[in-house]
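Cross-posting from the modeling subforum.

Setting up a comparison between two proteins and wanted a second pair of eyes on the formatting. Protein 1 (sequence, then structure tokens):
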Amino acid sequence: MIKDITIGQYYPGDSPLHKMDPRMKIVVAMVFIVAIFLVKTWWGYLAVLLFFLLGLLVSRLPVKFMLKSVKPLLFIIILTFVLNLFLSPEGNALFQWGFLKVTDRGLEMAAMLSLRLIFLVLSASLLTLTTSPIALTDGIERLLSPLKVIHFPAHELAMMMTIALRFIPTLLEETDKIMKAQMARGADFESGNILRRAKAMVPLLVPLFVSAFRRADELAMAMEARCYKGGSGRTRMKVLHLARRDYIALTAVAVLVALLVLERVFL
């Protein structure tokens, strides 16, 4: 399951989505996330699904690799579905057992909220899989650059966000190594109920924290050895500029938002 988390990883490619300006990719991703929260009917979710499938097709990413990002959060998605299924009293009763009651409205809300979580995870994964760490840092910094007039540390914040995001797969890889080492010594992480599995994970925390601090210290020393002094006076090998594909993507997501707004107003 640890290897299935794709958020924070970069999948090298030469697709139009990989070549998009990182600023526009971030903007489109943020607008798409807003669009997900505007959906209130199944027609809206169909529009969101078609838009995402179009982006996945353009990115040329393997479908199986993309779907792996949902697997680690499957428990949370199922829990969200079950809670909304039984805790939504509105609608006509479909099934009742004691104080537990399933209604048609509850079933619909549970399915919609679960789909919303899935789309949020997939959209974040699609952004990081098609954007290199350097491009992501430059994109965030350029988007926040207007705030420099009020002495906002745009470069430092962008660097912190990117390092934190890119540390996710590194820490997961380290966790996997520690788990395998402890399993070789007789540790069992697979059997038992949820509480027993969670208790078995406790011995992982100390070596994982030690490894995280060690890697952070190594990264800090590497940046210092390369005379990293922040964003002031820093030049870029590639100058960001918007192309036709960027405007097409922005227009497409704007049309999606407009359709969803009309859906909320008239449906």
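Protein 2 (same layout):
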Amino acid sequence: MSNVFIISHNYKDILSVSREEDQFVSWFSCSESGIGNSGGIRSARYLNIRADLPAYIVMITRNINHRWYNPWEDTIDYSSGSIFYWGDAKHHEKTSYDGFRGNRHLKNVWEKVLENRRSEIPPILHFSKVKSGLVKFNGLCVLTNLELTWFEDQGKPVKNYRCELSILDEEEVDVAWLHQRVKCEDLKTLNETAPRVWQDYIRGNTRKLDVWSRSIRSRDEQLPPEMSREAQLLSQLSELTPTQFEAVVVELFRNLPHVHHKITRTRPTADGGFDFFGQFAIPYPIHYELEFLGEAKKFARNNPVQPKHVSRLVARLGRGQFGIFVTTSYYTPQTQKEVLQDDYPVRLFSGSDIVNILRELRLTEQDGIKAEWLQAVLKKM
């Protein structure tokens, strides 16, 4: 019976090819090819083909503290079917950003993407480290963007790649397919046994994960693990007053890139049932503005948002307006079901979503939210 990786399922990673209970390194092992047991970007080589790309790539995001400091923080966003992943460059006096093995793979794959040579591109499997000895499969992915940017590694500026991965609409990946790629003897037959979603990608049709099938998110999907660095960010926000938290949320939305918008915070004394309002503009060539009302509520981690909280915002929406509800906590399944089933034009942002926005805007540091930015926001109130 073939081994299969299924989205959101956990697998034992005990760093052993020979032990039967291992469901990670040993599953990838095929003759003299495999992914090894260290590194965030790993790859398996072809056994019978000389190529400048590997047979497939495995990327791992660590969600737990590790004894080796990692300055790069990745983002997994199932709502958009996207993963934002940093390359493996670190501050090094003699090695540049493209001298690291993982970054070389990213660069070579991106060149094939730009040349539209999709049949030669290796599939990417993304996992996250749930805890020591356990990984979670996040999906079969393809590289859709690669940018070179700066980041700060322990106070030192470092160039590194940041890639955007699209999660394909495929619930499971048969390891036998990966082994077939490793043992393939001719590039012309490389993709004969590939799943349909991968064959569609080769033909130019990238079918991303169906977000509606995952619309009801669990508590764990909406909140970072307790005692994690991400949870500490939310704890820092919880120490703010309600009006300070509203100001921070408004400033975060103002700073979002690639979106034209106008956002205004309401007066605390008479907000009319909402905390901020504004417009998002879809840029050229559409030129269309969307009005919205928003609420920002600082709830404790164990105090979820109930239907009655969202209903208050929905009742204030006018024709053509949509709502934004932001909380440091999470939403009950019933709250999410009512928004979906009643077709409410409301987007729900949980604690993990706030963390992802802070990361995307590079507003985090080792000790929490960047102090200089936070002080500037509160000073403007």
